[in-house]
Amino acid sequence: PKTVERIAAGEVVERPASAVKELVENSVDADASRVAVSVENGGIDGIRVRDDGVGMDEAAVRRAVEEHTTSKIADVEDLEAGVRTLGFRGEALHAIGAVSRLTVTTKPRGGDRGTELVVEGGEVESVGPAGCPEGTTVEVEELFYNVPARRKYLKRPSTEADHVQRVVTGYALADPDVAVTFEADGRERFSTAGRGDLRSAVMAVYGREVASAMVEVDGADLDLPDGPLDGVSGLVSHPETTRASRSYCSTFVNGRYVAASAVREAVVDAYGTQLAPDRYPFAVVFLDVDPATVDVNVHPRKQEVRFVDEEGVREQVGHAVERALLDK
Ligand code: ADP
Ligand code: MG
């Protein structure tokens, strides 16, 4: 691909974790009930995301790797009405294919033939029939092999693997109905059962000791102060079992996994002096909010959301967590 195209690709795909984010979102959008993610060498050498979603026929998979193609928006009105699926820009697969060797193997649900399509450095290398189960497997090899500047900027493989794990964890917790597995260099890091219970998903990800002591935040039981949020719920760690040396806060806005530093800070602040020095909570926080008051990632790379009334959000989240900790 042309240099300009590779730079544009870098806007979407910054590191292995951002490729994984896009691929897992595609699996979720494809109605998958199982998603298995594995990485080699922090995802730098290889990423594989396998799902049992709706899959694609040959024409669909050819379209999927083209520039700015999406099956998810019919027209501009859909965009204005608020996009419900996670992806909508139609550029992730194309962008990943421009900076790696990308193999998509897929078979539609109920279909009788599978297809394998290989893209290398943005060019379709081959398309042909493949024996495969229903659903889609995307493999990304040699990420950034043709973008030395990006490759140089990557951190140690173990750090990249941690970033990937954080992203996969987010989707595992966002939707405990989906069974999510994460493997790094052939070793399983976690696997959720996909049986719809947040606490058991948290247990799979953070371990039994942390999960079983976590305190429930139930916005329905709380009188939230007036503010932008219609509800706050989730699980936060019990102060006495909190031994983490940094905070882990997975935040979901209307079910969508996002980064929201205001929420994380409000959670940490709510513990006040209940935590030992240099100890930080684990938290899984779901916020219900009028979409009009949230600025969801306008820029593809920015997972951070902005709230129109950030102070109000902090106050309500802080209140909900304080109340939950009082009742623990
Ligand atoms: P977007 O998700 O924004 O539409 P992508 O480049 O991520 O753009 O994907 C392009 C299209 O490829 C999607 O709209 C979808 O139709 C198809 N697709 C991608 N991944 C999958 C998958 N795992 N299962 C089924 N279809 C997929
Ligand atoms: Mg997508």
Automatic annotation (TrEMBL):
Domain DNA mismatch repair protein S5: 202-326
Family that this chain belongs to: Belongs to the DNA mismatch repair MutL/HexB family.
Function (record text): This protein is involved in the repair of mismatches in DNA. It is required for dam-dependent methyl-directed DNA mismatch repair. May act as a 'molecular matchmaker', a protein that promotes the formation of a stable complex between two or more DNA-binding proteins in an ATP-dependent manner without itself being part of a final effector complex.
Protein name: DNA mismatch repair protein MutL
Organism of derivation: Halomarina ordinaria
Lineage: Archaea, Methanobacteriati, Methanobacteriota, Stenosarchaea group, Halobacteria
Gene name, Swiss-Prot/TrEMBL: mutL
Part of the intact protein present: 10 to 337 of 696
